[in-house]
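Hi P.,

Sorry for the delay on this. The queue was packed all week, but I finally got your sequence through. Input first:
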Amino acid sequence: MNDTDNRINLILDIGEMLLSNGADVNRVEDTTMRLSSAFEFRDCQVHAINSSIILTLTAPGDTIITRARRITRIDTDLDKVDELNDLSRKICGGMKDMACIGKEMERIRNSAPYPPFMIYFAYAISASFFTLFFGGSWQDMLYSVPIALTLRFVKVRLSGFNNNKMVDNVILSAILTFMALVGKRFFPVLDSDLIIIGDIMLLIPGLAFCNSIHDMVMGDTISGVLSMFDAVLRALSIAIGYVVVWAVMGRLL
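Then the structure:
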């Protein structure tokens, strides 16, 4: 693989990592174009949506090259987005050592900014205070904590199966609804509706929804509509998990 191919692959790697970790399409396209200019490519044209990046540019020697990269899964890790932005600025500022850039990319790719116990703690705190915010009692607040911890545990296990996000959301929503209704059955003082609302906020695709609005405002209509549709489908999958369990357990309890 020659130097030109290495540089194009690096540009696509950065674009892919940005998009797959929650960056908006406008940021991905702007970063990709800036990196292309920094590596002395000309006439760069990039088209990104939430599932792919298509890059066309003119390499030295007037060779026109087109490459595409498929994005299979989008998560949320804004720390990686921030570190990739910092790396991109260094490259645009004159950093051209491919070995050094490769090591930095590998470090960012494998980085885990928060230890597992902190993520579990964040889930517990978020769910409990959402429950309290929506009018739950201190008993509801406390009971929402084990549900939140269970959701995180199951989510980590599901990530190893490479399921569609909608499938994961149906399963997670069903689990939290089941636990809330069982809790109501054994502890009548609990308000299962408020517990479900508090814990279900952990599954709401807020970033995807906000990015879709931003993309449409910035003129990336296709990407914005696709992201909006994806957010709506994920929200619908949450509702499906809730309805199925509620319909079944409503009869049993």
